[in-house]
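Running co-folding for thiamine diphosphate.
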Amino acid sequence: MLEYIEQPSDVKEKSVGELEILAQEIRDFLLEKVSRTGGHLASSLGVVELTLALLKVLDLPEDKIIWDVGHQAYPYKLLTGRREGFDHLREKGYMSGFPKRRESVYDSFDTGHSSTSISAGIGMAKARDLQGQDNKIVAVIGDGSLSSGMAYEALNNLSELKSQMIVIVNDNNMSISESKGGFSNHLAKIRLNSGYNNLKYGLKGSLAKMSGVGMGVDLLLSKAKKGVKDLILPRNLFEDFEVTYVGPVDGHNLGVLIEVLARAVKLNRPIVIHVKTEKGRGYEPAIKNPSQFHGVEPFELTTGKPLKEKKSSSYTDVFAKAMCELGEEHPELVAVSAAMKDGTGLSKFAKKYPDRFFDVGIAEEYAVTFAAGMAVGGLRPVVAIYSSFLQRAYDQIVHDVCLQNLPVIFAVDRAGLVGKDGPTHHGAFDLSYLSNIPGMTVIAPKNKYDLKAAFCYAVEQSGPVAIRYPRGAAWKGLKNIQEPFVTGKSEILSEGKEVAILAVGSMVETADLAVEQLRERGVEPTLVNIRFVKPMDKELIVRLALHHRLVVTLEENVITGGFGQQVSGLLAEQQIDCDCLNIALPDDFVEHGTVAQLHESLGMDYVSVAERILHRLKG
Ligand SMILES: Cc1ncc(C[n+]2csc(CCOP(=O)(O)OP(=O)(O)O)c2C)c(N)n1
Protein backbone atom coordinates (compact mmCIF):
# COMPACT_ATOMS: atom_id res chain seq x y z
CA MET A 1 0.00 0.00 0.00
CA LEU A 2 2.83 2.34 0.91
CA GLU A 3 3.99 2.89 -2.65
CA TYR A 4 0.58 4.33 -3.53
CA ILE A 5 0.67 6.92 -0.76
CA GLU A 6 1.79 10.08 -2.49
CA GLN A 7 0.28 12.65 -0.15
CA PRO A 8 -1.46 12.78 3.24
CA SER A 9 -4.94 12.79 1.68
CA ASP A 10 -4.24 9.22 0.46
CA VAL A 11 -4.07 8.16 4.11
CA LYS A 12 -7.46 9.72 4.86
CA GLU A 13 -9.23 7.29 2.54
CA LYS A 14 -7.95 4.20 4.31
CA SER A 15 -9.92 2.17 6.82
CA VAL A 16 -8.52 1.33 10.25
CA GLY A 17 -7.78 -2.20 9.05
CA GLU A 18 -5.85 -0.89 6.04
CA LEU A 19 -3.97 1.57 8.20
CA GLU A 20 -2.87 -1.28 10.45
CA ILE A 21 -1.34 -3.00 7.43
CA LEU A 22 0.20 0.28 6.33
CA ALA A 23 1.77 0.69 9.77
CA GLN A 24 3.63 -2.56 9.30
CA GLU A 25 4.77 -1.52 5.82
CA ILE A 26 6.05 1.79 7.18
CA ARG A 27 8.09 0.03 9.85
CA ASP A 28 9.55 -2.40 7.31
CA PHE A 29 10.40 0.50 4.99
CA LEU A 30 12.07 2.58 7.71
CA LEU A 31 14.07 -0.35 9.02
CA GLU A 32 15.30 -1.24 5.57
CA LYS A 33 16.31 2.34 4.73
CA VAL A 34 17.68 3.53 8.06
CA SER A 35 19.71 0.34 8.53
CA ARG A 36 21.58 1.45 5.40
CA THR A 37 21.78 5.23 5.93
CA GLY A 38 21.74 5.52 9.72
CA GLY A 39 19.53 8.10 11.41
CA HIS A 40 17.00 8.52 14.21
CA LEU A 41 15.15 5.25 14.36
CA ALA A 42 13.65 4.20 17.68
CA SER A 43 11.50 7.31 18.21
CA SER A 44 10.18 7.14 14.65
CA LEU A 45 9.22 3.47 15.03
CA GLY A 46 7.24 4.44 18.12
CA VAL A 47 4.98 7.01 16.45
CA VAL A 48 3.87 5.16 13.33
CA GLU A 49 0.24 4.71 14.45
CA LEU A 50 0.13 8.20 15.94
CA THR A 51 1.31 9.69 12.64
CA LEU A 52 -1.27 7.71 10.66
CA ALA A 53 -4.05 8.74 13.04
CA LEU A 54 -3.06 12.41 12.75
CA LEU A 55 -3.02 12.22 8.97
CA LYS A 56 -6.37 10.47 8.97
CA VAL A 57 -8.01 13.17 11.10
CA LEU A 58 -6.28 16.38 10.01
CA ASP A 59 -6.38 18.25 6.70
CA LEU A 60 -2.82 18.93 5.65
CA PRO A 61 -1.12 21.22 4.85
CA GLU A 62 -3.75 23.68 6.18
CA ASP A 63 -3.69 22.00 9.59
CA LYS A 64 -0.31 22.14 11.27
CA ILE A 65 1.65 19.49 13.15
CA ILE A 66 4.73 20.57 15.09
CA TRP A 67 7.05 17.66 15.83
CA ASP A 68 9.05 18.46 18.94
CA VAL A 69 12.79 17.86 18.37
CA GLY A 70 11.70 16.44 15.02
CA HIS A 71 13.75 13.24 15.20
CA GLN A 72 10.54 11.17 15.27
CA ALA A 73 9.19 12.66 12.02
CA TYR A 74 10.42 9.94 9.62
CA PRO A 75 6.98 8.29 9.23
CA TYR A 76 5.54 11.75 8.65
CA LYS A 77 8.13 12.54 5.98
CA LEU A 78 7.41 9.20 4.37
CA LEU A 79 3.67 9.87 4.19
CA THR A 80 3.99 13.46 3.02
CA GLY A 81 5.53 12.79 -0.37
CA ARG A 82 9.16 12.26 0.59
CA ARG A 83 9.58 8.50 0.12
CA GLU A 84 12.54 8.90 -2.27
CA GLY A 85 14.29 11.09 0.27
CA PHE A 86 15.05 8.04 2.38
CA ASP A 87 17.55 6.71 -0.17
CA HIS A 88 19.87 9.60 0.70
CA LEU A 89 18.62 10.50 4.14
CA ARG A 90 20.75 13.26 5.75
CA GLU A 91 23.23 13.29 2.86
CA LYS A 92 24.48 16.62 1.61
CA GLY A 93 21.95 18.16 -0.76
CA TYR A 94 19.28 15.58 0.09
CA MET A 95 16.54 15.19 2.71
CA SER A 96 17.22 16.46 6.20
CA GLY A 97 16.70 14.30 9.27
CA PHE A 98 14.52 16.99 10.85
CA PRO A 99 11.37 18.88 9.81
CA LYS A 100 12.20 21.82 7.59
CA ARG A 101 9.80 24.35 6.20
CA ARG A 102 12.05 24.84 3.21
CA GLU A 103 11.90 21.12 2.47
CA SER A 104 8.13 20.61 2.41
CA VAL A 105 4.86 22.52 2.73
CA TYR A 106 3.84 19.85 5.20
CA ASP A 107 6.58 20.85 7.66
CA SER A 108 5.11 23.67 9.67
CA PHE A 109 8.02 24.49 11.98
CA ASP A 110 11.76 23.73 11.93
CA THR A 111 12.89 21.72 14.92
CA GLY A 112 16.03 19.95 16.17
CA HIS A 113 16.35 21.34 19.67
CA SER A 114 13.77 20.04 22.09
CA SER A 115 10.73 21.45 23.86
CA THR A 116 9.78 24.21 21.42
CA SER A 117 6.60 22.70 19.99
CA ILE A 118 4.00 23.92 22.50
CA SER A 119 5.33 27.50 22.39
CA ALA A 120 5.41 27.55 18.61
CA GLY A 121 1.97 25.96 18.46
CA ILE A 122 0.40 28.56 20.74
CA GLY A 123 1.97 31.24 18.55
CA MET A 124 0.52 29.69 15.41
CA ALA A 125 -2.87 29.36 17.07
CA LYS A 126 -2.84 33.05 17.99
CA ALA A 127 -1.86 34.00 14.45
CA ARG A 128 -4.70 31.84 13.12
CA ASP A 129 -7.25 33.37 15.48
CA LEU A 130 -6.25 36.98 14.83
CA GLN A 131 -6.53 36.38 11.10
CA GLY A 132 -9.92 34.71 11.37
CA GLN A 133 -8.77 31.30 10.15
CA ASP A 134 -9.87 27.95 11.52
CA ASN A 135 -7.13 25.43 10.77
CA LYS A 136 -6.09 22.99 13.50
CA ILE A 137 -2.81 23.10 15.41
CA VAL A 138 -1.22 20.02 16.96
CA ALA A 139 2.04 19.89 18.91
CA VAL A 140 3.58 16.45 19.50
CA ILE A 141 6.02 16.44 22.40
CA GLY A 142 7.84 13.52 24.06
CA ASP A 143 7.89 12.92 27.79
CA GLY A 144 11.65 13.58 27.75
CA SER A 145 11.15 16.95 26.11
CA LEU A 146 8.57 17.82 28.74
CA SER A 147 11.41 18.01 31.27
CA SER A 148 12.54 21.32 29.82
CA GLY A 149 11.68 24.69 31.30
CA MET A 150 10.54 25.93 27.93
CA ALA A 151 7.77 23.32 27.84
CA TYR A 152 6.51 24.45 31.27
CA GLU A 153 6.61 28.08 30.24
CA ALA A 154 4.39 27.12 27.32
CA LEU A 155 2.03 25.04 29.46
CA ASN A 156 1.75 28.02 31.78
CA ASN A 157 0.46 30.05 28.85
CA LEU A 158 -1.60 27.34 27.22
CA SER A 159 -4.72 27.89 29.29
CA GLU A 160 -4.71 31.54 28.16
CA LEU A 161 -5.46 30.29 24.66
CA LYS A 162 -9.22 30.17 24.34
CA SER A 163 -9.24 28.36 21.01
CA GLN A 164 -8.33 25.04 19.41
CA MET A 165 -4.94 23.48 20.02
CA ILE A 166 -3.97 19.89 20.75
CA VAL A 167 -0.84 18.95 22.65
CA ILE A 168 0.00 15.28 22.29
CA VAL A 169 2.29 14.01 24.99
CA ASN A 170 4.06 11.09 23.35
CA ASP A 171 5.01 9.17 26.45
CA ASN A 172 7.41 6.28 25.86
CA ASN A 173 8.98 6.66 29.28
CA MET A 174 12.29 7.40 27.60
CA SER A 175 14.35 10.43 26.73
CA ILE A 176 17.51 9.27 24.91
CA SER A 177 18.19 7.30 28.06
CA GLU A 178 15.59 6.93 30.83
CA SER A 179 13.44 10.01 31.44
CA LYS A 180 14.41 11.79 34.64
CA GLY A 181 12.76 13.85 37.33
CA GLY A 182 9.55 14.40 39.23
CA PHE A 183 7.40 15.03 36.18
CA SER A 184 8.51 11.78 34.62
CA ASN A 185 7.46 10.03 37.85
CA HIS A 186 4.17 11.90 37.68
CA LEU A 187 3.49 10.62 34.16
CA ALA A 188 4.41 7.11 35.28
CA LYS A 189 1.83 7.29 38.08
CA ILE A 190 -0.87 8.33 35.61
CA ARG A 191 0.18 5.58 33.22
CA LEU A 192 0.10 2.89 35.83
CA ASN A 193 -3.47 3.70 36.71
CA SER A 194 -5.06 1.64 33.98
CA GLY A 195 -8.36 1.74 35.85
CA TYR A 196 -8.77 5.31 34.64
CA ASN A 197 -8.37 4.28 31.05
CA ASN A 198 -11.04 1.61 31.27
CA LEU A 199 -13.37 3.91 33.07
CA LYS A 200 -12.98 6.59 30.48
CA TYR A 201 -13.71 4.31 27.59
CA GLY A 202 -16.65 2.92 29.53
CA LEU A 203 -18.20 6.34 29.10
CA LYS A 204 -17.61 6.35 25.38
CA GLY A 205 -20.82 4.63 24.38
CA SER A 206 -22.97 7.30 25.89
CA LEU A 207 -20.79 9.92 24.30
CA ALA A 208 -21.37 8.63 20.79
CA LYS A 209 -25.08 9.19 21.21
CA MET A 210 -24.65 12.87 21.88
CA SER A 211 -25.36 15.32 19.14
CA GLY A 212 -22.36 17.69 19.33
CA VAL A 213 -19.22 15.60 19.26
CA GLY A 214 -17.08 18.39 20.64
CA MET A 215 -19.48 18.84 23.49
CA GLY A 216 -19.25 15.11 23.99
CA VAL A 217 -15.59 15.28 24.70
CA ASP A 218 -16.20 18.09 27.11
CA LEU A 219 -18.78 16.03 28.87
CA LEU A 220 -16.60 13.00 28.95
CA LEU A 221 -13.90 15.03 30.54
CA SER A 222 -16.01 16.83 33.00
CA LYS A 223 -17.68 13.61 34.01
CA ALA A 224 -14.37 11.93 34.46
CA LYS A 225 -13.13 14.99 36.26
CA LYS A 226 -15.98 15.52 38.62
CA GLY A 227 -16.74 11.88 39.19
CA VAL A 228 -14.74 8.86 40.06
CA LYS A 229 -11.51 10.04 38.50
CA ASP A 230 -10.58 12.20 41.45
CA LEU A 231 -10.92 9.20 43.70
CA ILE A 232 -8.55 6.98 41.78
CA LEU A 233 -6.09 9.30 40.09
CA PRO A 234 -3.20 11.18 41.56
CA ARG A 235 -3.30 14.94 40.96
CA ASN A 236 -2.79 15.71 37.32
CA LEU A 237 -0.32 18.44 36.55
CA PHE A 238 -1.92 19.39 33.25
CA GLU A 239 -5.22 20.00 34.95
CA ASP A 240 -3.40 22.01 37.62
CA PHE A 241 -2.26 24.17 34.71
CA GLU A 242 -5.98 24.48 33.89
CA VAL A 243 -5.68 22.58 30.64
CA THR A 244 -8.07 19.78 29.71
CA TYR A 245 -6.39 16.38 29.86
CA VAL A 246 -7.32 13.09 28.19
CA GLY A 247 -5.46 9.83 28.61
CA PRO A 248 -3.48 7.78 28.81
CA VAL A 249 -4.41 6.47 25.39
CA ASP A 250 -2.81 3.41 23.77
CA GLY A 251 -0.61 4.95 21.08
CA HIS A 252 -0.55 1.77 19.02
CA ASN A 253 -4.30 1.28 18.86
CA LEU A 254 -5.27 3.05 15.65
CA GLY A 255 -9.00 2.80 16.25
CA VAL A 256 -8.83 4.45 19.65
CA LEU A 257 -6.29 7.06 18.53
CA ILE A 258 -8.40 8.13 15.57
CA GLU A 259 -11.53 8.34 17.65
CA VAL A 260 -9.94 10.40 20.40
CA LEU A 261 -8.27 12.74 17.90
CA ALA A 262 -11.42 13.13 15.81
CA ARG A 263 -13.28 14.30 18.90
CA ALA A 264 -10.44 16.44 20.22
CA VAL A 265 -10.04 18.51 17.02
CA LYS A 266 -13.60 19.70 17.44
CA LEU A 267 -12.88 21.23 20.83
CA ASN A 268 -12.57 24.97 20.78
CA ARG A 269 -9.93 25.16 23.47
CA PRO A 270 -6.56 23.58 24.25
CA ILE A 271 -6.44 19.93 25.17
CA VAL A 272 -3.59 17.64 26.20
CA ILE A 273 -3.83 14.06 24.95
CA HIS A 274 -1.50 11.72 26.78
CA VAL A 275 -0.50 8.92 24.42
CA LYS A 276 1.46 5.91 25.60
CA THR A 277 3.87 4.50 22.99
CA GLU A 278 6.79 2.11 22.86
CA LYS A 279 10.14 3.42 21.67
CA GLY A 280 11.53 1.13 18.95
CA ARG A 281 8.13 -0.56 18.41
CA GLY A 282 8.26 -3.50 16.00
CA TYR A 283 12.02 -4.04 16.05
CA GLU A 284 13.32 -6.21 18.84
CA PRO A 285 16.90 -4.83 19.06
CA ALA A 286 15.51 -1.27 19.33
CA ILE A 287 12.92 -2.25 21.95
CA LYS A 288 15.65 -3.91 23.99
CA ASN A 289 18.07 -1.03 23.59
CA PRO A 290 16.14 2.16 22.76
CA SER A 291 19.04 4.45 23.74
CA GLN A 292 21.39 2.82 21.27
CA PHE A 293 18.75 2.94 18.54
CA HIS A 294 17.76 6.54 19.25
CA GLY A 295 20.29 7.65 16.66
CA VAL A 296 22.15 4.93 14.78
CA GLU A 297 24.94 4.46 12.31
CA PRO A 298 24.21 1.90 9.53
CA PHE A 299 23.53 -1.55 11.03
CA GLU A 300 22.83 -5.14 10.10
CA LEU A 301 19.07 -5.57 10.05
CA THR A 302 18.95 -9.14 11.30
CA THR A 303 21.14 -8.59 14.36
CA GLY A 304 21.01 -4.84 14.95
CA LYS A 305 24.82 -4.77 15.09
CA PRO A 306 26.63 -1.74 13.61
CA LEU A 307 28.11 -2.39 10.17
CA LYS A 308 31.34 -0.63 11.05
CA GLU A 309 33.04 -1.10 14.39
CA LYS A 310 34.37 2.11 15.91
CA LYS A 311 38.11 2.14 15.30
CA SER A 312 39.60 4.96 17.29
CA SER A 313 38.51 6.73 20.43
CA SER A 314 36.58 9.98 20.15
CA TYR A 315 37.14 13.22 22.04
CA THR A 316 34.09 12.23 24.07
CA ASP A 317 35.85 8.98 25.05
CA VAL A 318 38.96 10.90 26.06
CA PHE A 319 36.84 13.25 28.17
CA ALA A 320 35.03 10.27 29.73
CA LYS A 321 38.32 8.68 30.79
CA ALA A 322 39.78 11.96 32.03
CA MET A 323 36.69 12.55 34.19
CA CYS A 324 36.97 9.13 35.83
CA GLU A 325 40.66 9.68 36.58
CA LEU A 326 40.23 13.25 37.82
CA GLY A 327 37.32 12.10 39.97
CA GLU A 328 39.73 9.97 42.00
CA GLU A 329 42.10 12.82 42.79
CA HIS A 330 39.33 15.38 43.27
CA PRO A 331 36.51 14.25 45.53
CA GLU A 332 34.91 17.67 45.00
CA LEU A 333 34.52 16.98 41.27
CA VAL A 334 30.88 16.44 40.23
CA ALA A 335 29.34 16.08 36.78
CA VAL A 336 26.09 17.40 35.30
CA SER A 337 24.39 16.25 32.12
CA ALA A 338 21.21 17.54 30.48
CA ALA A 339 19.72 14.23 29.30
CA MET A 340 22.88 13.28 27.39
CA LYS A 341 24.62 10.88 29.76
CA ASP A 342 25.77 8.55 26.97
CA GLY A 343 26.32 11.19 24.29
CA THR A 344 28.63 13.25 26.49
CA GLY A 345 30.48 10.19 27.76
CA LEU A 346 29.46 10.77 31.37
CA SER A 347 27.91 7.32 31.80
CA LYS A 348 31.29 5.96 32.96
CA PHE A 349 31.64 8.69 35.58
CA ALA A 350 28.01 8.10 36.62
CA LYS A 351 28.71 4.43 37.16
CA LYS A 352 31.89 5.04 39.11
CA TYR A 353 30.58 7.94 41.21
CA PRO A 354 26.78 7.63 41.25
CA ASP A 355 26.41 10.22 44.04
CA ARG A 356 28.47 12.75 42.13
CA PHE A 357 26.62 12.55 38.83
CA PHE A 358 23.40 14.41 38.00
CA ASP A 359 21.25 13.95 34.92
CA VAL A 360 18.83 16.85 35.15
CA GLY A 361 16.78 16.04 32.04
CA ILE A 362 16.59 18.33 29.00
CA ALA A 363 17.19 21.38 31.15
CA GLU A 364 20.36 23.13 30.01
CA GLU A 365 19.48 26.39 31.77
CA TYR A 366 18.83 24.61 35.03
CA ALA A 367 21.99 22.50 34.63
CA VAL A 368 24.16 25.62 34.54
CA THR A 369 22.58 27.43 37.49
CA PHE A 370 22.43 24.19 39.46
CA ALA A 371 26.18 23.84 38.82
CA ALA A 372 26.71 27.45 39.90
CA GLY A 373 24.99 26.61 43.19
CA MET A 374 27.19 23.58 43.71
CA ALA A 375 30.27 25.70 42.98
CA VAL A 376 29.19 28.21 45.64
CA GLY A 377 28.82 25.27 48.00
CA GLY A 378 32.43 24.21 47.47
CA LEU A 379 32.11 21.57 44.76
CA ARG A 380 33.82 21.61 41.36
CA PRO A 381 31.08 20.98 38.80
CA VAL A 382 31.73 19.91 35.23
CA VAL A 383 28.72 20.66 33.03
CA ALA A 384 28.90 18.58 29.86
CA ILE A 385 26.58 19.95 27.17
CA TYR A 386 26.84 19.96 23.39
CA SER A 387 27.82 23.33 21.95
CA SER A 388 24.51 23.97 20.19
CA PHE A 389 22.37 23.00 23.22
CA LEU A 390 24.48 25.21 25.51
CA GLN A 391 23.14 28.19 23.52
CA ARG A 392 20.00 27.71 25.62
CA ALA A 393 21.85 28.55 28.82
CA TYR A 394 23.57 31.74 27.77
CA ASP A 395 22.10 34.01 30.43
CA GLN A 396 22.80 31.43 33.12
CA ILE A 397 26.45 31.27 32.03
CA VAL A 398 26.71 35.07 32.11
CA HIS A 399 24.58 35.87 35.13
CA ASP A 400 24.91 32.86 37.40
CA VAL A 401 28.45 31.69 36.68
CA CYS A 402 30.71 34.36 35.17
CA LEU A 403 29.37 37.38 37.02
CA GLN A 404 30.27 35.63 40.27
CA ASN A 405 33.47 34.13 38.85
CA LEU A 406 32.44 30.65 39.92
CA PRO A 407 34.68 27.69 39.15
CA VAL A 408 32.32 25.82 36.84
CA ILE A 409 33.91 23.80 34.04
CA PHE A 410 32.00 23.58 30.77
CA ALA A 411 32.73 20.50 28.69
CA VAL A 412 31.49 21.81 25.35
CA ASP A 413 31.22 18.72 23.18
CA ARG A 414 30.20 18.67 19.46
CA ALA A 415 31.87 22.06 18.92
CA GLY A 416 32.23 22.83 15.23
CA LEU A 417 30.47 20.97 12.44
CA VAL A 418 28.71 17.78 13.50
CA GLY A 419 27.77 16.44 10.08
CA LYS A 420 24.48 14.81 9.20
CA ASP A 421 22.32 16.37 11.92
CA GLY A 422 22.90 19.71 10.23
CA PRO A 423 22.34 23.33 11.23
CA THR A 424 20.33 22.75 14.41
CA HIS A 425 23.18 20.69 15.80
CA HIS A 426 26.37 22.28 14.41
CA GLY A 427 28.36 23.85 17.23
CA ALA A 428 29.04 26.96 15.22
CA PHE A 429 28.78 29.76 17.73
CA ASP A 430 30.40 28.84 21.04
CA LEU A 431 33.74 30.59 20.50
CA SER A 432 31.84 33.80 19.79
CA TYR A 433 29.28 33.52 22.56
CA LEU A 434 31.69 32.31 25.25
CA SER A 435 34.73 34.45 24.52
CA ASN A 436 32.80 37.70 24.86
CA ILE A 437 31.92 37.03 28.51
CA PRO A 438 34.27 38.71 31.01
CA GLY A 439 36.14 36.28 33.24
CA MET A 440 35.51 33.22 31.09
CA THR A 441 38.47 31.10 30.00
CA VAL A 442 37.92 29.41 26.64
CA ILE A 443 40.17 26.53 25.61
CA ALA A 444 40.22 24.58 22.34
CA PRO A 445 42.59 21.58 22.60
CA LYS A 446 44.51 20.53 19.49
CA ASN A 447 44.47 16.74 20.07
CA LYS A 448 43.54 14.04 22.58
CA TYR A 449 46.56 14.80 24.81
CA ASP A 450 45.72 18.48 24.89
CA LEU A 451 42.13 17.64 25.85
CA LYS A 452 43.18 15.63 28.88
CA ALA A 453 45.70 18.31 29.88
CA ALA A 454 43.01 21.00 29.48
CA PHE A 455 40.76 19.30 32.04
CA CYS A 456 43.70 18.79 34.44
CA TYR A 457 44.37 22.53 34.07
CA ALA A 458 40.70 23.50 34.47
CA VAL A 459 40.18 21.74 37.81
CA GLU A 460 42.97 23.85 39.29
CA GLN A 461 41.40 27.20 38.29
CA SER A 462 39.36 29.45 40.53
CA GLY A 463 36.98 30.75 37.85
CA PRO A 464 34.90 29.44 34.94
CA VAL A 465 36.58 27.48 32.16
CA ALA A 466 35.02 26.24 28.93
CA ILE A 467 36.75 23.50 26.95
CA ARG A 468 35.37 23.00 23.44
CA TYR A 469 36.06 19.92 21.37
CA PRO A 470 34.53 18.38 18.27
CA ARG A 471 32.49 15.30 17.49
CA GLY A 472 34.35 12.26 16.23
CA ALA A 473 37.76 10.64 16.42
CA ALA A 474 40.32 12.35 18.64
CA TRP A 475 43.43 13.39 16.75
CA LYS A 476 46.62 11.74 17.96
CA GLY A 477 49.02 13.80 15.83
CA LEU A 478 51.76 16.07 17.20
CA LYS A 479 51.99 13.84 20.25
CA ASN A 480 55.54 14.92 20.96
CA ILE A 481 54.78 18.62 21.23
CA GLN A 482 53.03 19.19 24.51
CA GLU A 483 53.82 22.44 26.30
CA PRO A 484 52.42 22.74 29.82
CA PHE A 485 49.16 24.70 30.12
CA VAL A 486 49.75 28.29 31.19
CA THR A 487 46.76 30.65 31.27
CA GLY A 488 46.48 32.62 28.04
CA LYS A 489 49.55 31.06 26.44
CA SER A 490 49.52 29.54 22.98
CA GLU A 491 51.80 26.77 21.78
CA ILE A 492 54.22 27.30 18.88
CA LEU A 493 54.30 24.09 16.84
CA SER A 494 56.77 25.14 14.15
CA GLU A 495 58.60 28.35 13.35
CA GLY A 496 58.78 29.68 9.82
CA LYS A 497 58.54 32.94 7.97
CA GLU A 498 56.21 35.01 5.78
CA VAL A 499 53.01 33.46 7.06
CA ALA A 500 51.88 32.66 10.61
CA ILE A 501 48.95 30.26 10.91
CA LEU A 502 47.03 30.60 14.16
CA ALA A 503 44.89 27.48 14.41
CA VAL A 504 42.14 26.82 16.93
CA GLY A 505 41.40 23.35 18.33
CA SER A 506 40.36 20.82 15.68
CA MET A 507 41.74 23.09 12.95
CA VAL A 508 45.30 22.47 14.14
CA GLU A 509 45.14 19.10 12.36
CA THR A 510 43.94 20.80 9.17
CA ALA A 511 46.63 23.44 9.52
CA ASP A 512 49.31 20.83 10.07
CA LEU A 513 48.36 19.15 6.78
CA ALA A 514 48.10 22.50 5.00
CA VAL A 515 51.62 23.35 6.20
CA GLU A 516 52.94 20.24 4.43
CA GLN A 517 51.26 21.40 1.21
CA LEU A 518 52.72 24.87 1.61
CA ARG A 519 56.20 23.49 2.22
CA GLU A 520 55.93 21.56 -1.03
CA ARG A 521 55.18 24.89 -2.69
CA GLY A 522 58.22 26.56 -1.10
CA VAL A 523 56.49 28.36 1.76
CA GLU A 524 57.62 27.66 5.32
CA PRO A 525 54.87 28.86 7.67
CA THR A 526 54.89 29.37 11.39
CA LEU A 527 52.21 27.21 12.99
CA VAL A 528 50.60 27.97 16.35
CA ASN A 529 48.16 25.99 18.44
CA ILE A 530 46.19 28.90 19.88
CA ARG A 531 44.83 26.76 22.72
CA PHE A 532 43.42 29.73 24.69
CA VAL A 533 40.86 31.65 22.68
CA LYS A 534 40.33 33.60 25.88
CA PRO A 535 42.43 35.05 27.38
CA MET A 536 44.09 35.45 24.03
CA ASP A 537 47.90 35.32 23.72
CA LYS A 538 48.04 38.93 22.52
CA GLU A 539 51.76 39.27 23.09
CA LEU A 540 52.57 36.34 20.81
CA ILE A 541 50.07 37.35 18.14
CA VAL A 542 51.44 40.89 17.99
CA ARG A 543 55.01 39.57 17.82
CA LEU A 544 54.11 37.18 15.00
CA ALA A 545 52.27 39.90 13.10
CA LEU A 546 55.34 42.12 13.31
CA HIS A 547 57.56 39.37 11.88
CA HIS A 548 55.30 37.90 9.19
CA ARG A 549 53.71 39.23 6.06
CA LEU A 550 50.44 37.40 6.63
CA VAL A 551 48.59 36.17 9.71
CA VAL A 552 46.02 33.43 9.04
CA THR A 553 43.41 32.49 11.60
CA LEU A 554 41.72 29.12 11.33
CA GLU A 555 38.74 28.10 13.42
CA GLU A 556 35.62 25.96 13.16
CA ASN A 557 33.31 28.67 14.44
CA VAL A 558 31.23 31.28 12.73
CA ILE A 559 33.33 34.19 11.47
CA THR A 560 31.30 36.82 13.27
CA GLY A 561 32.68 37.49 16.71
CA GLY A 562 34.99 34.51 16.49
CA PHE A 563 38.71 34.20 17.14
CA GLY A 564 39.73 35.54 13.73
CA GLN A 565 37.79 38.77 14.03
CA GLN A 566 39.23 39.25 17.49
CA VAL A 567 42.74 38.89 16.04
CA SER A 568 41.91 41.34 13.23
CA GLY A 569 40.58 43.72 15.87
CA LEU A 570 43.76 43.37 17.91
CA LEU A 571 45.99 44.10 14.90
CA ALA A 572 43.89 47.13 13.98
CA GLU A 573 43.95 48.39 17.56
CA GLN A 574 47.73 48.01 17.70
CA GLN A 575 48.03 49.65 14.26
CA ILE A 576 50.09 46.77 12.94
CA ASP A 577 50.43 46.73 9.21
CA CYS A 578 50.10 43.01 8.58
CA ASP A 579 47.62 41.29 6.28
CA CYS A 580 45.15 39.05 8.12
CA LEU A 581 43.16 36.22 6.55
CA ASN A 582 40.29 34.84 8.65
CA ILE A 583 39.26 31.32 7.73
CA ALA A 584 36.10 30.34 9.61
CA LEU A 585 32.54 29.17 9.12
CA PRO A 586 30.49 31.65 7.08
CA ASP A 587 27.94 34.05 8.55
CA ASP A 588 25.27 31.62 7.47
CA PHE A 589 23.65 28.37 8.60
CA VAL A 590 25.60 25.38 7.33
CA GLU A 591 23.48 22.54 5.94
CA HIS A 592 23.84 18.83 6.72
CA GLY A 593 26.38 16.50 5.11
CA THR A 594 29.51 14.71 6.20
CA VAL A 595 32.02 16.96 7.94
CA ALA A 596 34.55 16.28 5.18
CA GLN A 597 32.05 17.34 2.48
CA LEU A 598 31.10 20.45 4.38
CA HIS A 599 34.72 21.44 4.95
CA GLU A 600 35.40 21.02 1.28
CA SER A 601 32.42 23.09 0.19
CA LEU A 602 33.36 25.83 2.66
CA GLY A 603 37.01 25.91 1.62
CA MET A 604 38.11 24.65 5.02
CA ASP A 605 39.75 21.34 4.09
CA TYR A 606 43.55 21.36 4.18
CA VAL A 607 43.98 21.56 0.40
CA SER A 608 41.67 24.56 0.14
CA VAL A 609 43.28 26.19 3.17
CA ALA A 610 46.72 25.88 1.58
CA GLU A 611 45.36 27.28 -1.68
CA ARG A 612 43.68 30.19 0.04
CA ILE A 613 46.91 31.04 1.85
CA LEU A 614 48.99 30.85 -1.34
CA HIS A 615 46.46 32.98 -3.16
CA ARG A 616 46.58 35.61 -0.43
CA LEU A 617 50.38 35.59 -0.32
CA LYS A 618 50.46 36.19 -4.07
CA GLY A 619 47.71 38.80 -3.90
C1 LIG B 1 17.77 21.50 23.81
C2 LIG B 1 18.10 20.08 23.48
N1 LIG B 1 18.81 19.35 24.35
C3 LIG B 1 19.12 18.07 24.07
C4 LIG B 1 18.72 17.50 22.90
C5 LIG B 1 19.15 16.08 22.54
N2 LIG B 1 17.99 15.19 22.47
C6 LIG B 1 17.43 14.86 21.29
S1 LIG B 1 16.12 13.88 21.46
C7 LIG B 1 16.29 13.83 23.11
C8 LIG B 1 15.34 13.02 23.93
C9 LIG B 1 13.93 13.38 23.65
O1 LIG B 1 13.10 12.54 24.38
P1 LIG B 1 11.56 12.57 24.11
O2 LIG B 1 11.09 13.96 23.98
O3 LIG B 1 10.91 11.75 25.15
O4 LIG B 1 11.41 11.91 22.69
P2 LIG B 1 11.56 10.37 22.27
O5 LIG B 1 12.87 10.29 21.57
O6 LIG B 1 11.51 9.53 23.48
O7 LIG B 1 10.45 10.13 21.36
C10 LIG B 1 17.38 14.59 23.53
C11 LIG B 1 17.83 14.73 24.91
C12 LIG B 1 17.99 18.31 22.01
N3 LIG B 1 17.59 17.84 20.83
N4 LIG B 1 17.69 19.58 22.33
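Result summary
The mean pLDDT is 93.
Residues 559 and 584 are 5 Å apart (CA to CA).
Job closed.
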